[in-house]
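Q: what does this look like with nicotinamide-adenine-dinucleotide bound?
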Amino acid sequence: MATPVKVTVTGAAGQIGYALLFRIASGQLLGADVPVKLSLLEIPQAVKAAEGTAMELDDCAFPLLSGIEITDDPNVAFDGANVALLVGAMPRKAGMERGDLLSANGGIFKPQGQAINAHAADDIRVLVVGNPANTNALIAQQNAPDVPADRFTAMTRLDHNRALAQLAAKLQVPVTEIKNMTIWGNHSSTQYPDLFHAEVGGKIAAEQVDEAWYKETFIPTVAKRGAAIIEARGLSSAASAANAAIDHVYDWVNGTDWTSVSLPSDGSYGVAEGIISSFPCRSVGGQWEIIQGLEINEFSRQRIDASVAELTEERDAVKELGLI
Ligand code: NAD
Ligand code: LMR
């Protein structure tokens, strides 16, 4: 059997962790022929719960799962890690905005970035799920100067999938009919789901829906879906978030023509260099590339700029806090 890929999951005893770990162990993260070794990072109070989840993983007798390690030490958890899913953070509660979480969660991602820098494998790929995901990813990335910046990503794939589902329902088409969907900006209520490049049945999506529906229903429904789930469930989304994390890493490793990824900006599309913002991306040879050359109209420009402005404010706030 091939050497197992070490996948580190932080917040492993949480609700996303519970929805994620079994899918990783079954081969859905990397591929049906790729053995994996799981490393579960938790805070000391939650290690026992993570041990319970590990017992259940054992009980599945997954053919691809070659071992499970459980620890409360980031230096152990990230030692030799090839893939790191940074999920552990405090979830947003009803009424909270992501800005409220910056100081609470930022402190988690600095030591984790440092541990990744010191101990991870050379091919480490990092996906940050814990909110505020984009800025948490920036904190981790800035604290890992020896790791190429483009190995740090944040998750806007859930927003992307939500946009596909909402548009498919509106146009009464299967989600597979929709191509080239893009989420720009922050994983927050300022995100911009772009229908001017999305295509349905080969035609531009924005031309197939009312402008009023696009601006007043579609965009806010997608952008505020996280809050709507919290309102309905009393808890933030978990299975759909885990599903999006699986999609993100699978496509990163195995390739895709077009999806939405938050990664360090190289200045493309006028997005401030260095901030971790969502772009239309393809994955080629195991690396994300921002899809270039799209025409950005006035409406899109304003929406992208507004979300990027929020990200630069978040960056400035964590700089003030000494986290980057
Ligand atoms: P949860 O509270 O159920 O689980 C979080 C887990 O993280 C807990 O078990 C906790 O003990 C652990 N944890 C806290 N600090 C840690 C640390 N320093 N190291 C390791 N583990 C730590 O929360 P959840 O519902 O699983 O959500 C996790 C995060 O994901 C939240 O921040 C949530 O807002 C976010 N989220 C992001 C998206 C997205 O699309 N990016 C979607 C849904 C949820
Ligand atoms: C989501 O999008 O479901 C999560 O980010 C939850 C939240 O805090 O909005």
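The chain has two domains: 5-154, 157-315. The longest helix spans residues 298-320.
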